[in-house]
Amino acid sequence: MPELPEVETVRRSLEPIVVGRTIIDLDVGSFASVLGTISFDHARAALVGRRLTGIRRRGKFLLIDLDDESGIEVHLRMTGQLEVADRGAPPLRFQHLAILLNNGLDLRFADQRKFGRVIIHDGDPALALKSKLGPEPLETDFTSSYFQGVLRGRTAAIKSLLLDQRLVAGIGNIYADEALFLARIHPQRPGGSLAAVEVDALVSAMRDVLGSAIDQRGTTFRSYRDGTGQAGENQHRLNVYGRGRRGEPCFRCGTPLAYLVIGQRTSHFCPECQPLEIESR
DNA sequence: ACACTGCCCTGCGAGC
DNA sequence: TGCTCGCAGGGCAGTG
C-alpha cells in the first residue's frame, strides 16, 4: 500500500533513469481505463515526442513533468507499481501501460486491483491537486500550530482525520497507526480533544515515522516495489500495523495489541500505551 | 463545512 | 486437497 514514503522511494529511484529521456511510443494493455476517460490514441498523440523534464511527488501522487509544460499524474492506490525495465524484458504481472523511452527502457505501470490511474494533463498536473491536498508533512509549512488549527472543533476520530488528504497529504493507514502509537494517542480520540502537547507529539511522530520509512525505502508487504523493482525494508520496523489483529505484544509494554475498525479502516494500537480516556493518562 | 457510507477491484489467506 | 468467503483500503461521489 504505497503511502508517502513508498511513493517518494519510487520517485527517487526513477528520477536518475527517466528524466531527460524522450517518449517514443505507448503500449496499453486490456485495461484501457488506466488512462481515465481519454482514449489511447489521444494519449499517444499527447505523449509521443515529449521529453521528461522532472518527476515530483505530492502526497501519494507522482507527477511527471514534460517539456511542453504538460504532465502525467500517477496514483498507485493500493497495488500499483511503476517500474523501469529493458524493452525486451517480459511484462510485469498485471501490466496495463508501458511508456517507451528513447534509451531502450520502458516505464511500466502495473496494478493487480485496477484502482491506480495514469492521468495525462494538458497543463501542470500539480495544479489539479492543489485544492485536494493539504501540506506535505515533511515540509516546514506543516507545523504543530497549523495542525492544531486544523483539528480545532473536529469531532471525527483523529485516525480518520490523519487519512484526510486535505488536512495533511500522504498519510495512509500504516503510517497513521504508527504515528498514533509513537505519540501515544488512541485512534478513536476526537480530533478536537487533543491537547497542544499531544498535537506536538503527533506532528513530530508523523515526521519520525515517515522519515525513517523513507530511509528504509518503504514498507513492502506484498506488491510494493520501487522504480527498479526492489522491495523496501520498513516492514521490519513497524510497531503496530498488522500486529493488532494478531494480538502480538506491544514492543514498549508487552500488552497484547488490539484493533478497531474506524471509518472502515482497521486500526492497530496498544490499549495500554494509547488509552482512550484522558482521565486515566 | 463536516461526518459518514458505499463503490471500485481481485489475489490471497483463513476456515471448513 | 479443494472449495468458498471475506479481507486489504485510497480516493471519490453521494447523502444527511
Question: Which keywords apply here?
Answer:
281 residues, alpha+beta, DNA-binding, four-stranded antiparallel β-sheet, elongated
Write a concise synopsis of the structure shown.
Helix content is 25%, strand content 21%. The protein has 7 helices and 10 strands.
Q: Overview of this structure, please?
A:
This protein is α+β, with helices and mostly antiparallel strands and 281 residues long. The chain contains seven helices and ten strands. It has helices at 4-18, 40-47, 125-129, 144-151, 158-162, 173-182, 196-215; strands spanning 23-28, 52-58, 61-66, 71-75, 80-86, 95-101, 105-111, 117-121, 258-262, 265-269. A hairpin with a 4-residue loop joins strand 3 (61-66) and strand 4 (71-75). The longest helix is centred in the last third of the chain and has 20 residues, at 196-215. The chain is elongated and about 60 Å long. The structure holds a DNA duplex (16 and 16 nucleotides).
